[in-house]
User: Fold these one by one.
Assistant:
Number 1:
Amino acid sequence: MSEARIADFFTDVSVIEDPVAYFEDARNRGAVWREPHHGAFVVTGHDEMVEVFRDTDRFSSCNAFGGPFPGLPEEPPGDDASALIEQYRHIFPSHESLITFDPPMHSDHRGLMMRLLTPRRLKENEDFMWRLADELIDTFAARGSAEFIGEYAQPFALLVIADLLGVPEADHGELRRRMVAKGPAGSVGQRVEGNFLAHLEDFFTGYVEQRRREPKDDVLGKMALATFSDGSVPEVIDVVRVATILFAGGQGTAARFLGNLLKHVAEHPELQRRLRAEPEQIPAFVEEALRLFSPVKCTFRMARHTTTLAGVRIPAGSTLVLLLGAADRDERRFESPAEFRAQRPNVREHVAFGRGIHSCPGAPLVRAEGPITLERMLHRLDDLRISEAHHGPAGSRRYEYTPTYILRGVEALHLEFRPAG
Ligand code: HEM
């Protein structure tokens, strides 16, 4: 284990600018180790992380949305923190949202969500994405330059999820305004507190109540009338919270991922030529980009019982930081992990979308949004490059990164190009 001081993942701005250096440092300290700043256990090993994701008896998601703060307010009396977790569940950020639920409650709410993301609805949504991509590119193609995040990634991610759910167009602007005003979760040095999505709930309450009165054949309509597995009808607020987390979860993440993807492509002209010539390679390319440039750096769990992981003793009630980006660079799982190799045989084994019961329900959307965006951008625009005027010359680029320990991405990405002949 390295003895040198390690940065504080939760407060140190250097980690925002270069999370990869932190991932490497963290991996060099072991598959599981205790970080000194908050006393949390950092998981960097791929196998160990999958073990944590899959074992909901040993590890609770109660703190999945909160960072290392706050832990339990009391020391567990012995080797079992289960009772305290239930007693204090309500103090954890976003405890109203299924991302922090454990079974059996999680199963019911997740079931509500998954029954709605049907292959038919996803296919219709994908058709919409192809049209939308071209419409957005039309707004800047002739100009020869664009600020990709504001002019493409954010509106694309918003309109895709709004289309999926059936959110009326008249409300898109206000919903977006509220999300921007709220900012992303996990700002460096700050605690995530309370119900992170409360600012969206009145809109979705209106949609669900209206659809309970007048059924409508859209995702929100189906969600409004769906029942739990035992046949009982969920409270309106339960449905609202499933809808808001889909709506909000689908934007900041997807928009940042598209930014990370284009930032890489714009730096590599040879890659652009190859993907243009062989567009069938794009899905594998996007998959490898998820492994190396995922917009979600970490998630959290709490040990229900005293346990060991990779030989490290973890006391009941401890916080685990699942460092997704580090596990996706585990050389025990990925040969030459730092290299971008879209052809690696296990390209889909990354943990960018987590694993197990909480694994990302938005994965099929992202796996359509990424390839469609790339295909259309490469088809419509030639010679994509980073704007030196805005980001400086190759080798010493300047970017403003979103200052959060949860998400990874740039606030603005200025691109230049020629409209394809
Ligand atoms: C590249 C983009 C995305 C990445 C990397 C990502 C990553 C993740 C990860 C790692 C988790 C698991 C968290 C945990 O187990 O603690 C998760 C859960 C979740 N994601 Fe995503 N996500 C992305 C896009 C989306 C989109 C587009 C949506 C919505 C359409 C979405 C909605 C959700 C929801 C609702 C959960 C909670 C699921 C549950 O707790 O059962 N995500 N995501």
Number 2:
Amino acid sequence: MRARRQPSLTLRATLAFSVVAMLAVASAGMYLYETMKGAVMTRSDHAVLARLDHFRKLLQYDLTLTTLQSSPQLFENMLDSEDDIFIIAEPGKPAVIMVNPLHAPLPEMPVVQANRPLSVADMRSGMLDSGVPMRAATVEAVSRGKTVHLTAAHIAVKEMATLAGFRNRILFAVALAFVLTAVLGYVLLRRGLRPLRRMASHAAAITPAQLDSRMDNRDTPVELQQLGEAYNAMLDRLADGYQRLTQFSADLAHEIRTPVGSLMGHCQVALRQPRTEDEYQALLASNLEELERISRMVESILFLARADEAQAALNRQTLDLADEMQRVTGYFEGLAEERDIALHTEGDARIEADPLLLRRALSNLVANAIRYADEGSVIDVRVVESARHCRIEVENQGPTLDDATLGKLFDRFYRGDASRHQSSDSNGLGLAIVAAIMQLHGGEVTVNQPTSGRICFGLVFPR
Ligand SMILES: Nc1ncnc2c1ncn2[C@@H]1O[C@H](COP(=O)(O)OP(=O)(O)OP(=O)(O)O)[C@@H](O)[C@H]1O
Ligand SMILES: [Mg+2]
């Protein structure tokens, strides 16, 4: 079943960025709006206070109520807007002057004494039915012995209109920030993620025949560079593995073709004319030998394939190496005697290993040593212990090999010239099996030539 398609990373990131940009612009706008509102209101408060102060002084010095009453233009042009309120009244009596075009209700207000200066704290807020705010104050004035109350109020219609305009601009800026960030973010992110898409199409084009193509990581951003490098490294490993597999199957076909070809050849020659019973027996015996070799090869290949594949479960046991060396050299004694070779064992240790596999690895080394050592020489099998390792060494006298050859000994199907000529039952798989066994144990197999003419293989087990 196909997985549900997740929203794209570009889309999600773009939306997130846009919301953040929108919030940032909105908060800045709100802050500016509040500051501006405060400033506008303070300004209008001061205008109201200045007006009250002005008329209080006028009344206290020379202006009489009657003059004021008879010439309304005196105060009308003092008012800030046509809706503003201005009232003069003697306490408890109807107003002498009453300007309140909108008939707005006034809030409850304290009366500021005539000798006291005015301040913003003396002002009160009110509200028209239409929701427009108002600021008002009342002061006392003494004009020719008469006490009068002056009330002034400002209705903030213009201010509210200005602020409403400002608010609309803020809303517009917020919307613009959202759209701009979304568009720019989308474009930039799509550009930034281009290497990912390139990688996907590169990966889609990879086939076994094209394992040598690599991603170009030069213009990839740092975050994706790691991915690109890991991807290329994976291709390196795949190409290497694939190349070895191809080589292996080519070698395998070649190795099996030769003995099968020779078997067929023997049979064809034999069938060309009638043969004696002895001849048939000899033919069958030689064919059997060849078939045994093929069977051994198949068994070895199967072992290597399983070791590669499953890291086959190891049956680890505590082993006494002196016993194990004794057992293996004892088994090869007869073969060694045939070539007049002596087997020496030395040392002892205990390790944790799979007994069957350890015996198989050690047998392969000892079999090689007997096969390739100079006739009449001595083979040393010994245990060397160090703090971190336990090493089983098999050393014999033999041909001097160059470094390139030493490196190839553990390759599957690699055989030295000597073995090609010497015997037909060499498959070149013995050391590959030893290497696989050591890998299963987390150790390794080493080879070196301590002096020319001596060759020493070591099975290194980690402690
Ligand atoms: N002790 C040794 N001294 C000298 N040469 C060696 C020794 N052991 C291995 N070699 C060389 O390494 C080659 C590879 O050895 P390996 O055991 O893998 O294969 P093989 O012995 O030829 O065949 P197989 O072990 O499969 O029967 C040998 O053909 C031989 O040339
Ligand atoms: Mg061998």
